[in-house]
Write a structure and sequence with these properties.
It contains seven helices and 16 strands. By secondary structure, the protein is an alpha+beta fold. The protein is globular, with a radius of gyration of 17 Å.
Length: 269
């Protein structure tokens, strides 16, 4: 990808996030009707409205589309370039009026996320970047933290996973475990150095993590699926194993801490 192509791609992502922000401004977090999909996942009119505007702003001829709120079109599997988006990651938080939700956009080329952006309109945070240009946080260059030990590290944890007791074994460590909604938002905060670590042992879909994982890696951080592989996207089944992300110097201590807790069959080194 040339520099001009990279710039055009980031401009398109930025414009789409701004359009999505305008759409979300028509809705009030914490005061919106909610429906529930199979599996008890919430969905609102806001999710669908943002999905529509993202498709309009982003999609061009020859590109594929994978979104949580669109019927999957498997023609995407034959495309070299595919948009992987979550119109509103953290819908539970949005419904409850908790300012931990975001719009998440990733461009995937030949299975590899190459550019992306995350916008949290409630906190006025915009995290964007590409493998070529690095990452910005509200327009300023951003990087993961350079912390090298787990002592005092801020670990962002899923609020629902905490409620289910899945983080009990980590809450007595010297790290600081902080409940935060939206896995995309958590990954964005790690990419921007606003937190040190996030991980989940719960399977996620590509649209949940594609943009956030790209941003962590583009900023110089570490990302891995639970099977120890780099994240790839545009699979027929978009469900992935859980994900591990941190600043570059925390890779080894984090993997050492997680090793005995990883699910059977997951990476342990």
């Amino acid at each position: 990808m040339t520099s001009s192509q990279n710039t055009e791609l980031l401009q398109r992502i930025h414009s789409a996030l701004q359009a999505a922000r305008t759409v979300l401004g028509r809705f009030t977090a914490g005061a919106i009707e909610t429906e529930y999909k199979t599996g008890h996942d919430p969905v609102t009119e806001a999710d669908r409205a943002v999905d529509a505007v993202l498709r309009k702003e982003l999609l061009r001829e020859g590109e594929g589309w994978l979104s949580e709120e669109s019927v999957d079109d498997f023609s995407r599997l034959d495309k070299n370039r595919v948009w992987v988006v979550d119109p509103l990651d953290g819908t539970r938080e949005f419904v409850q009026g908790i300012p931990e939700f975001c719009v998440s956009i990733a461009m995937v080329e030949n299975g590899k996320p190459i550019a992306g952006g995350i916008c949290n309109p409630a906190t006025n945070e915009l995290i964007m970047g590409s493998r070529e240009s690095g990452v910005t946080y509200n327009g300023q260059p951003a990087h993961p933290t350079d912390r090298s030990t787990l002592d005092g590290a801020v670990i962002l944890a899923s609020r629902s996973e905490l409620k289910r007791g899945e983080w009990t074994q980590f809450q007595n460590s010297t790290s600081i475990v902080k409940a935060t909604g939206s896995v995309a938002y958590k990954l964005g905060l790690v990419a921007a150095g606003r937190a040190d670590i996030t991980f989940t042992f719960t399977p996620k879909n590509e649209w949940d993590v594609a943009a956030g994982a790209l941003l962590v890696e583009a900023a110089g951080g570490f990302v891995s699926t639970l099977d120890g592989q780099p994240l790839t996207c545009n699979h027929k089944n978009p469900l992935l194993t859980g994900l591990i992300a941190c600043g570059p110097k925390l890779r080894e201590p984090l993997l050492a801490m997680l090793r005995e807790h990883l699910p059977v069959g997951a990476a342990r080194s």
